[in-house]
Fold Probable sugar-binding periplasmic protein.
Amino acid sequence: MNAFSRLTTAVSLAYLLPLVAHAGEVEVLHWWTSGGEKRAADTLQQLVEEKGHSWKDFAVAGGGGEAAMTVLKTRAVSGKPPAAAQIKGPDIQEWGELGLLTDLNGVAEQQGWDELLPEQVARVMKYEGDYVAVPVNVHRVNWLWINPQVFAEAGATAPTTLDEFFAAAEKLKAAGFIPLAHGGQPWQDSTVFEDLVFSVLGAEGFHKAFVEQDEATLTGPKMVEAFAALKRLRGYIDANAAGRDWNAATGLVINGKAGMQVMGDWAKSEWSAAGKVAGKDYQCLPFPGTQGSFAYNIDSLAMFRLSDEDNRKAQADLAETVMSPQFQAFFNLNKGSIPVRLDQDMSAFDACAQSSMADFKEAAGNGGLQPSLAHGMAASSYVQGAVFDVVTNFFNDPQGDPQRAAQQLAAAIKAVQ
Ligand code: GAL
């Protein structure tokens, strides 16, 4: 061993020793299992391991996270919740009420979360004034992904209105492409539906329908129009859509079989993983008719009470890591989302992320920033489930009547309020 390697070994041992003394384990429940999303999750694992802790991956496949939430409930009931779980929006309050979450105020104070986070975000992460969850990112749900080469071959134009969207779909269909890549799963059906609601009812109508759950809005003529648009859109998906995972649908657009996909910006993780470049190989457009507005979906890790001290330290280090600028860059570059820190340097991010950040800030100031219903930000999981049922039944019923669907939507929500 030469003098230099002796020195570096000594330095790295000195660096590791205090960490090893407090090494703990963090078990993290999430559903980031697609190729692109796994790359993002791996960045967190790596940073946690660099702090000397061990990572226990608790990944439950299933886009939208319904399966993950079911498994989490079982684990919590048996008294063995993981250290951290991806729990979002109003659900954080429900877990807080059960008394199962731990507070992260120490880390939050040390890192200055109150100053770093947008106020709307900080509020969601707190239960009775205490931080119980750490925000990971901000996803935007109202996106349309298109393959420009397919569009060129079909002579279609990138749409900015719903009329143009259907005109493009018609051209893609005539040219033999799948116009819209879709996965027939309830959360995906409702993702598309909520974008249509956003487009047809506008930000104010969206808020009235999904946040206030106002009956007149839920049953009104605009909601009927949104259901009618959903029915029309269904004419442009392929026969094999039933049950398809969202990332397989993204794959159809990437490999040029389909022209478009309506999906949140986690879809970008698949494009990035395939080595494709935003603005060149693919385009991200605000969902037609929702320009300047932003349906947000904030991923967050809620932390459960633990008894082991080393594991508690590992949990606090996990929270600290998630809020670090380094993680916010690594993770979100892979995940397709934007960082949650207001002071984050965005220079490494692509055109889609840059415009997402600009729209996020603009929408925050003009009422256009709205919580996603399909992704558990606008209402409880009970309301979300009720909407999923009505939307998916309507979507799969060739006789589905938009007027009746709007009535059913209001009734289903009322039943679980
Ligand atoms: C969302 C989640 C995203 C992404 C997506 C697809 O609910 O917030 O991070 O994972 O599901 O599974």
About this structure: Residues 31-32, 37, 63-65, 139, 246, 266, 297, 299, 375 surround beta-D-galactopyranose (CB under 6 Å). The mean pLDDT is 95. The chain has two domains: 3-139+297-356, 141-295+374-416.
